[in-house]
Amino acid sequence: MPNYFSDNTDILYHFEKLNLKDIVNIAEDEYKQAEQFDDAPVNYEDAMENYRKVMEIVGDITGNYIAPRAAKIDEEGAVFENGKVTYAKGTQEALEMLSKAELMGMILPRRFGGLNFPTTIYMMAVELISRAEASLMNIFGLQDIAKTIDKFATEEQREFYLPGFSSGLYTGAMALTEPDAGSDLQAVKLTAYQDENGNWFLRGVKRFITNGNGDVLLVLARTEAGTKDARGLSMLSCMKDDSIIVRRIEHKLGIHGSPTCELQFNDTPAELIGTRRFGLLKYVIYLMNRARVGIGAQSLGISQQAYEEALKYAKAREQFGKPIYNFPVVANMLIDMRVTLESNRTLFYNTCTWLDRKEAYEDLIEKRKSEKLPFNDVNEKFKEAQRMTNFLTPTTKYILSEASNKMTYDSIQIHGGTGYMREFAVERLARDARITNIYEGTSQLQIVAAAGSVINDVLADYINDWEKKEYKGSLKKLKESLMEIRVLFNDALKYVKEKKDTGFQDVAAKDLVELYSYIYTGYLLLDEANDDQRRVFTAKRFILDSLARSRKNAESIKNELYSDILHADTILI
Amino acid sequence: MQRCVQTGALNQSIILRIKKAAMGFNSIVMVKQVPDTANISGQVMKEDGTVNRAKLPAIFNHEDRVAIELALQIKDKFGGKVTAITMGPPRASDILRECLYMGADEAYLISDRKFAGADTLATSYVLSEAIKKIGGYDFVFAGRQAIDGDTAQVGPQTAEKLHIPQITYSEEILGIKDGSVQIKRKIDGGFEVLESKLPLLVTVIKDAVSPRPFKARRVMAYKNARTLLELEKLTEGNSLLYIDQLKDDYVNKGLYIHTLTMDDLKLDESRCGVHGSPTKVHKVESVVLAGGSHEMIEPTKEGISRLIDQLLEDHILG
To answer: What tens digit of pLDDT does each residue of B107-116 get?
Structure first.
């Protein structure tokens, strides 16, 4: 009876270490909700106990119910027939089970049937779901759509949509991408128009819509005729009906359980969510940032399973008279995988906590404003959290999604020829991982999103504090390595800045973002190692490996590795 | 129609039935905490071949979880109440909480040191008396059998003591109408459909339905539900806590798990626990099935008759 939560010592380690005190305090109205709801916690310890117990349910369902269905879901996939999309049988069963367990509204308010959990705990659930069956995350993870409605819609709209999400009656979709508007969402053309009574209607086409067959669609549409940029776009919601035609679903390399739809809106009745013209600038950015963290969780879940499969196989497979696990070359690959997994999880749950802080402080500011109370103290905290998430969200998505590709690649490698075969799970994991660094913004776009924070050295104060901190024994040496990486980073950054060449800066941004992430993750791991003997190994391999990589990153910039881009036309024949 | 008009009593019973349907059906579900025999490790078997229960993780007997699910499905469909009961040591409260997590309305722990060492006869005596005390039931559900004893006797014996009909090995409830129920039960090589009046005791097999998961909100709401024995533990060493107050507090919060002892049930001590248990374990042996020789039996009359003779000779038949 595997439990993906309580059997995973690394997740438990992070769960124990979570400090969500402020966040939960705000989300629970200083625990006043307990007077109204018998499932609401009475204090922080009680809240953590609630989260643990619910995560145990998630761990049970993912390990014992969903994971055994994954291979079949991949084989069957979602099916499109006579204009109708049907989930694979396993997907349907999994969703039913999760709905019965009351897990489909984890981050929604209790008054709409939700659990009112912090995003961090929800993301932990998303990680477990993804480990069991990666494509199920693309439906389970759409709770963020409901969260977006909760944040920006009117109370009447919330009452209309949210209870259905919580009960599992509705699934959602965010309809953003169009044939000519992928990474460049400013180019969205789908039109929203009003009749004489002010009712909105949608007309146009959306493409590559994950779960486009969902019941509630959030649609990015052009409400301002004649505009061509982001300022003409608004967010509208609509329910699935006959006016929305699913034209086809895509045949994909992986995540077969998740239907990717092409949708045609034929004068579909819709409602405006929030304020006109803020569709992309505010609401989609909010939704997208949460979705990016969700893809981080998906990547992490896939990575965990890739590691588990590799370890299990290496111990069972004998060659030359012993398990291949006993060959240093294989053990070394496994250690690399384990360290990647653990360091990524450290970065990930740190990111989640910052995201939670940002949203909690934002909510508190709103509340204080409505009660006409001063909020300057909270504002400072909010701004700090916002700065951190601006850097951490794209960086984490970039690092973790790329890592899940490398992890599944290595897992197949450890399996040898067997891993290339359908009978083993790793080839599926590799196919599922391949989308993670593409959708919700490609890795290249994540770097663009993170670059500003890196160039402005937003972590400087934190790093200064870490550099002043005392570390035990061998960790001192590791701290020196991190300080060395910082010197390399600063030199490279200075070089890029002085060059004043935006083209060069765009290409060098990848190296700068990576350098910066080594420093941040490195110090997080160093702090963990300071308190936990086993994690010294993780910190050591991560930091020394990062030091070697950082020399490459820095030299690529300073040796003008990329100067030949000017001659691209000559080279690319 | 004519008869209804003629007999007032029948009229009365129709009204009662209609009223009953509107109120739904109440179920009492007998559940048991069992050692996790699927995960037996080295330390668990004692040298004499018996099981050291303290070393085994205790789990919810799976078929009893299926029984809870069936009872909850009746509640979902017709309304009514689901009450879980277990006879066991104090720690059996774990599975009662799990019943509450699934959706049970109330739970009873039947616990007393004097119940220790009970066989199926003594167990069914205690459980039937507890069920009589709780009362007001249309169904008594239980799993077919528990994975520790594998006797499948407690359900049937309880029905006997309650003087109600029983349907064992149930797979599916086909319908409830006019105070009677149609149930599909498993038999060798197939199934049969039986109809019975209510109240009825039903034992269920594991394939009947898939038990629902724990519900997140109920888990959070009932995680602090406690039995009297657990509350007594809390008061130990804390002179500021009075058990009666504490109990009232838990009752008011809906977090009290009813707890019944031998005295509460006014039981005959000679019928409880080891005294009330005629079953004595004579010997425990670990049977290792070893491969041996085999013999081909011709599918002819003579062949079959030789086989039967052989089986009789080996005391396998007869």
So the answer is: 999 999 998 8
